[in-house]
Amino acid sequence: MTRLGSWIEPHAEGIYVPAADIWIDPSTPKPRALVTHGHADHARGGHGAVWATPETLAIMEVRYGPQPGNPVAYGERLTLGNIDVSFAPAGHVLGSAQIVLDHAGERAVVSGDYKRRPDPTCAPFEPVPCDIFITEATFGLPVFRHPETHDEIDKLLAALHANPDRCVLVGAYALGKAQRVIAELRALGHADPIYIHGALQTLCSLYAAHGVELGELRAATDADKAAMRGAIVIAPPSALNDRWSRRLPDPITAMASGWMRVRQRAVQQGVELPLILSDHADWDELTRTLVEVAPSEVWVTHGREDALVHWCQMHQIKARALDLAGYDDEES
């Protein structure tokens, strides 16, 4: 009897599908690649041909230059070799997709990175029933249960209003997190100008070009200290303790990340205001997703694989951990 998923080959550098002669999120350049989303640990430059959503291709072009791209819209179906391929929203960042593979009566879903919380900057995750579900496990431990998004944004606004002579400097990754923080602030009625680090400008403009309303953004570099008192400033995490931040008026240092659940990380990074805001599914969302897609097998990638594999086994779901190289938690 043929093993389930025998037509899919996990390798250290990515997942290879021989019947289509194509790789999924390879960490090294390949002749043909399917890419789930634009973060650098999934989308690399140098491939011979790339299939991805139009938004992901646009992000890759910003990061790597012109791409040999083939745009695939959500729900569109194509055939590569003997494999039927379609993309479904992953809810991670703009353009993020789950890659759905149908072959020989089996369906495998490569989720990439995903989250289940509402996000005004990207299409929501869509559960796709399948035989094999390949899932991340970035926050694959029961201790990781993310709070409600609006509660964290309320904390940010409360700190701002309580300190009118200071600014709040929020560390947020350039792709996805920064735009989400801005959009969530707008959704709660914060209409004031938001100041941003220059490294965020290109991707914020790209989001706006794809219909994501971010309101008035101003370059922090061009503003004087007085203008930024009582304002929110958003910058890459690397700028929080950099010389660049010295131009700001007595900043309250904040960081938007799922890792802010770990108090020691906040202390180590000198974060005064930890904001637990993640673009990855937490433990409850990971396990709920597995119940919803009801796979016969679960393959677990980068993260806390052991706990999620154990949960699957306790619920009579066959599971295995994949040893994929090149993935990290920088965009959490």
TrEMBL record:
The protein, known as: Ligase-associated DNA damage response exonuclease
Q: Which ranges form a coiled coil?
A: none
Q: Which InterPro entries match?
A: MBL (IPR050698), RibonucZ/Hydroxyglut_hydro (IPR036866), Xnuc_lig_assoc (IPR026360)
User: What EC numbers are recorded for this enzyme?
Assistant: 3.1.-.-
**Keywords noted in UniProt:** Exonuclease, Hydrolase, Ligase, Nuclease
**Gene Ontology terms for molecular function:** exonuclease activity; ligase activity; RNA endonuclease activity
Alphabetical list of Gene3D superfamilies matching this protein: 3.40.50.10890, Ribonuclease Z/Hydroxyacylglutathione hydrolase-like
Query: According to the lineage, what is the superkingdom?
Result: Bacteria
Enzyme class at the top of the EC tree: hydrolase
Q: Which PANTHER family match?
A: BLL1145 PROTEIN (PTHR11203:SF49), CLEAVAGE AND POLYADENYLATION SPECIFICITY FACTOR FAMILY MEMBER (PTHR11203)
